[in-house]
């Protein structure tokens, strides 16, 4: 019987398989950040072990870093300790680190692909749930816990039980003005935040093939928000073109050999998925969330739903609570919802293509009075590129703030936060209660919708301007 892409990558990395026990997988790339690594390094220290493959391990500072005044010491003591601890650990264990201010610094899931470290067919792990982002390259990439981080640091392997396989096929082409973010938000609303639980999801179909690498990363990034272990997309010419010439991509003859192998990384025609979902891309429109989980979403043209719309009692209760937290009334058109803040950034939508989409909308326009708009590049490289293209000038002329690279307002672990009761449109991936600041209210949106919302002062798409 044929195998799926994920099975092929998985099987190629099994170094030990014994009946009744988890498989032991070899890990090709281990990404590290300041939040989930301190205890793992402590564990090594206590048992007098080394990092087994420092050359396959790379660290960056992202969650706790401020996005302005980065030359000053970090004011918050907890954040400062996290970052200092990472620096100390990387120095002691010989791990390459991209610290604040370094040209290679940025959000962990932005820098891996950008450096050409993430490649098709690899196993990629990080103590971070959005590691699924790297699946956009046809890698098997997933988040791990801190004890697993220690295991990988010490052995470069990880015990795993093979997940089930799911296919999400997005047929037809996305209509004009509908983006990868709209697509994945619609998928999660359709299958639910638990819809992918226990599965590795392969995204396929015309709409997926037509996406740029940035768009594919946006889609794979949010796999975890549907509960999936990982999400991935078969590598193709778009993937190869993105990788060619990057710092860590294979060169010369090695490139040709690599591409020949990468071309074999596709699901066989006779492979069987444990679950299949088909989505019609042609019916999609800009999509936003109204609630407090990423599956509580609707088309921008819709109204805030009523809890009565949900037949499942748990969903009904969740909707009721969400409307209360979000300060929303059923029946209100989503386009009438006013926002205080717009955040563009994160590992979901903080890449150059996302910033270009925002600049296209903001060009010659102004951010609405009373709205604060924060535009945060996902990495220093993205920042440099954006400035080379003059995007920063467009942002600041429109009245938006242009910041340094980091996770920023995606989560409330650094100075960029929503105030209690403040309402934001955000290009990030999570809208849980308090995610962007205690009492903050988050609407997840695409970069284009974020930009149009900044101009209108209420949820809007570029077509509304
Ligand atoms: C801090 C980290 C462990 C966390 C994650 O695992 O995803 C963060 O990146 C997030 O997005 O919530
Ligand atoms: S940008 Fe947000 S989702 Fe991504 S790693 Fe940082 S905190 Fe997590």
Automatic annotation (TrEMBL):
InterPro entries for the chain: 3-IsopropMal_deHydase_lsu, Acnase/IPM_dHydase_lsu_aba_1/3, Acoase/IPM_deHydtase_lsu_aba, Aconitase_4Fe-4S_BS, Aconitase_4Fe-4S_dom, IPM_dehydratase_rel_enz, IPMI_cat
Cofactor descriptive note: Binds 1 [4Fe-4S] cluster per subunit.
Domain Aconitase/3-isopropylmalate dehydratase large subunit alpha/beta/alpha: residue ranges: 7-457
Region listing for Disordered, in residue ranges: 419-440
Residues that bind [4Fe-4S] cluster: 347, 407, 410
Entry keyword set: 4Fe-4S, Amino-acid biosynthesis, Branched-chain amino acid biosynthesis, Iron, Iron-sulfur, Leucine biosynthesis, Lyase, Metal-binding
Pathway: Amino-acid biosynthesis; L-leucine biosynthesis; L-leucine from 3-methyl-2-oxobutanoate: step 2/4
Cofactors demanded by this protein: [4Fe-4S] cluster
Reactions catalysed, as given in the entry: (2R,3S)-3-isopropylmalate = (2S)-2-isopropylmalate
Domain of life according to the entry: Bacteria
Gene3D superfamilies hit by this protein: Aconitase, domain 3
EC code(s) of this entry: 4.2.1.33
HAMAP family linked to this entry: LeuC_type1 (MF_01026)
Quaternary structure note: Heterodimer of LeuC and LeuD.
PANTHER family, A to Z: 3-ISOPROPYLMALATE DEHYDRATASE (PTHR43822:SF9), HOMOACONITASE, MITOCHONDRIAL-RELATED (PTHR43822)
Chain's role: Catalyzes the isomerization between 2-isopropylmalate and 3-isopropylmalate, via the formation of 2-isopropylmaleate.
Family classification: Belongs to the aconitase/IPM isomerase family. LeuC type 1 subfamily.
The protein's name: 3-isopropylmalate dehydratase large subunit
Organism: Actinocorallia longicatena
Annotated gene: leuC
């Amino acid at each position: 019987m044929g195998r799926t892409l994920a099975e092929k990558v998985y099987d190629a990395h099994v170094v030990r398989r014994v009946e009744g026990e988890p498989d032991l997988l070899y890990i090709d790339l281990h990404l590290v950040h300041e939040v989930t690594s301190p205890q793992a390094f402590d564990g090594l220290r206590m048992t007098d072990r080394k990092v087994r493959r420092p050359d396959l391990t790379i660290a960056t500072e992202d969650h706790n870093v401020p996005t302005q005044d980065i030359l000053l010491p970090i004011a918050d003591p907890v954040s400062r300790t996290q970052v200092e601890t990472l620096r100390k650990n990387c120095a002691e264990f010989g791990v390459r680190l991209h610290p604040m201010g370094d040209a290679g610094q940025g959000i962990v899931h932005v820098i891996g692909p950008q450096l050409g470290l993430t490649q098709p067919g690899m196993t990629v792990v990080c103590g971070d749930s959005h590691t699924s982002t790297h699946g956009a390259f046809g890698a098997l990439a997933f988040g791990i816990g801190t004890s697993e981080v220690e295991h990988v640091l010490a052995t470069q392997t990880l015990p795993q039980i093979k997940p089930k396989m799911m296919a999400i096929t997005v047929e037809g082409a996305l209509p004009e003005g509908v983006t990868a973010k709209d697509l994945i938000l619609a998928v999660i609303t359709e299958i639910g935040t638990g819809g992918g639980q226990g599965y590795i999801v392969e995204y396929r179909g015309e709409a997926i093939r037509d996406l740029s690498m940035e768009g594919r990363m946006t889609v794979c990034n949010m796999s975890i928000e549907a509960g999936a272990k990982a999400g991935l997309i078969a590598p193709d010419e778009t993937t190869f073109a993105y990788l060619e010439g990057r710092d860590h991509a294979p060169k010369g003859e090695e490139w040709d050999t690599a591409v020949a192998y990468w071309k074999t990384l596709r699901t066989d025609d006779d492979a069987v998925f444990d679950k299949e979902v088909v989505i019609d891309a042609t019916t999609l429109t800009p999509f936003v969330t109204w609630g407090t989980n990423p599956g509580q979403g609707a088309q921008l043209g819709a109204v805030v739903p009523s809890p009565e719309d949900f037949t499942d009692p748990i969903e009904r209760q969740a909707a009721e609570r969400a409307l209360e937290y979000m300060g929303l009334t059923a029946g209100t058109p989503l386009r009438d919802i006013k926002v205080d803040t717009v955040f563009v950034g994160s590992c979901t939508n903080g890449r150059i293509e996302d910033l270009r989409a925002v600049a296209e909308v903001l060009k010659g326009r102004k951010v609405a009075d009373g709205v604060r708009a924060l535009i945060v590049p996902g990495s220093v490289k993205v920042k440099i590129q954006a400035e080379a293209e003059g995007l920063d000038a467009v942002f600041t002329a429109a009245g938006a703030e242009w910041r340094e690279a980091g996770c920023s307002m995606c989560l409330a672990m650094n100075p960029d936060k929503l105030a209690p009761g403040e309402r934001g449109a955000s290009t990030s991936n999570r809208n849980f209660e308090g995610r962007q600041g205690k009492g903050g209210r988050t609407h997840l949106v695409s970069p284009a919708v974020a930009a149009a919302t900044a101009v209108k002062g209420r949820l809007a798409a570029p077509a509304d301007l």
